């Protein structure tokens, strides 16, 4: 039976970041590593991708500081739609400053920006093994 998260049986990852350059690098790297990737520049677009079919995603990479619906509100809505989905938060701010309000549903991981692609790859591999 095919994996409902992806038509190609590769894990599908949603990348949400308002910085075009960051989003582009993440999409390219994850694609090269064999993941199916969707990208969104903000929380509204991310939720539009995610809401119709939350079960098709294996993981979300989510920037916390974005215009419009910010990262924290997007995180809460994604968790409301799929409580068990691993979400990796990304921020240029220290984790203590950014994830205090998420203690009830802590993220799978936190990536401090800037980070290197080797760190990202290892983190994604570990996160998807859970």
Characterise this structure.
It is a single chain. Helix 2 (43-50) runs parallel beside helix 3 (71-81). The chain has a five-stranded parallel sheet with strand order 2-1-3-4-5, with helices on both faces. It is globular and about 35 Å long. It is built from five helices and five strands, in the order E-H-E-H-E-H-E-H-E-H. Residues 1-6 have low confidence and may be disordered. It has one domain: 3-Layer(aba) Sandwich (Rossmann fold), CATH 3.40.50.2300. With 130 residues, the protein is of the alpha/beta class.
Task: Tell me the layout of helices and strands.
Layout: E1 12-16, H1 20-32, E2 36-40, H2 43-50, E3 59-63, H3 71-81, E4 87-91, H4 95-98, E5 109-112, H5 117-128
Parallel strand pairs: 1-2, 1-3, 3-4, 4-5
Helix pairs in contact: 2-3
What's the gist of this structure?
With 130 residues, the protein is α/β, with parallel strands linked by helices. The protein has 5 helices and 5 strands.
Structural class: alpha/beta
Strand content: 15-25%
How would a textbook summarize the main sheet? 5 strands, parallel
Q: How many runs of DSSP E, i.e. beta strands?
A: 5
CATH topology: Rossmann fold
CATH structural architecture = 3-Layer(aba) Sandwich
Computed Rg = 13 Å
What is the H/E order?
A: EHEHEHEHEH
Say which CATH homologous superfamily is assigned. Response regulator
Assembly annotation = single chain
Unreliable sequence segments: 1-6
Text of the CATH class: Alpha Beta
> Helix content range of the residues, please?
25-40%
Q: Residue-averaged pLDDT, rounded? A: 88
H/I helix tally: 5
């Amino acid at each position: 039976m095919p994996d409902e998260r992806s038509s190609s049986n590769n894990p599908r990852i949603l990348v949400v970041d308002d910085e075009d350059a960051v989003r582009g690098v993440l999409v390219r790297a994850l694609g090269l590593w064999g993941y199916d990737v969707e990208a969104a520049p903000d929380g509204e677009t991310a939720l539009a991708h995610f809401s119709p079919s939350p079960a098709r995603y294996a993981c979300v990479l989510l920037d916390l500081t974005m215009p419009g619906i910010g990262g924290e509100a997007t995180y809460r809505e994604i968790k409301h739609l799929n409580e068990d989905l691993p979400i990796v938060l990304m921020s240029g701010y220290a984790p203590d400053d950014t994830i205090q309000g998420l203690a009830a549903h802590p993220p799978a991981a936190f990536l401090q920006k800037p980070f290197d692609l080797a760190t990202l790859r290892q983190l994604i591999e570990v996160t998807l093994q859970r």
